[in-house]
Amino acid sequence: MSLKTLREGLSKGRLTISALDDGSGVVLDVEGEQLLEMNATGLAIMQAIADGADTEADVADSVARQFDAPPEQVLADVKVFLEAVGKAVAEKGP
């Protein structure tokens, strides 16, 4: 699932983000009828997308600032995350 597709899913209500008190969270995929558990980093990635990040690099920059992490490592993690979320949603999607 691409960044654009995730952003569209968030804006159209197919995907909703819920943060938990411990910093982790969940993303509900209404159409795929599944709940995706996220650690704090995953939640930060999803929130950056929801906030309008246009590229993977924009997402990585946002997350790197939040966690004081090297942007190039975060970018690699963002790519892995998007692939994993895309696969999970595609397997359960309509």
Feature tags:
single chain; alpha+beta; Arc Repressor Mutant, subunit A; 3-stranded antiparallel sheet; 3 strands
Task: Describe this protein's structure.
It is a single chain. Helix content is 59%, strand content 16%. It starts with a helix and ends with a helix. Helix 2 packs across helix 3 (56-67) and helix 3 (56-67) crosses helix 4. The chain is of the alpha+beta class. The mean pLDDT is 91. The chain has a 3-stranded antiparallel sheet with strand order 1-2-3.
Overall 3D shape: globular
What is CATH's topology name?
Arc Repressor Mutant, subunit A
Overall pLDDT, averaged? 91
Distance between the termini: 14 Å
Helix tally equals 4
Number of domains: 1
- Cα-atom radius of gyration: 12 Å
Q: What would you say the CATH architecture is?
A: Orthogonal Bundle
H and E string = HEEEHHH
The residue ranges in which pLDDT falls below 50 over 5 or more consecutive positions are: none
- Strand arrangement, largest sheet? 1-2-3
The SS-based structural class is alpha+beta
**Helix content estimate:** 55-70%
Strand content: 15-25%
Oligomer: single chain
CATH classification class = Mainly Alpha
- The total count of strands amounts to 3
Biggest sheet character: 3 strands, antiparallel
